[in-house]
Specification:
By secondary structure, the protein is mainly beta. It is built from one helix and three strands. This is GNAT family N-acetyltransferase.
């Protein structure tokens, strides 16, 4: 199994989901983005 963390505003989020990753949870305000301020962090999972 593989875990991954991706910020909410990352355009590659579609890529991760297309590769079979499922978002398990979102941690609110877990990442301080230089332009967007505090944003959520998606924790995703994919079984191998």
């Amino acid at each position: 199994m593989v875990f991954n963390a991706v910020v909410e505003t990352d355009p590659a989020l579609r890529l991760w989901t297309s590769l079979g990753f499922t978002i398990l949870a979102t941690v609110p305000q877990a990442y301080e983005h230089p332009r967007h301020g505090l944003i959520g962090l998606h924790v995703s999972h994919r079984a191998l």
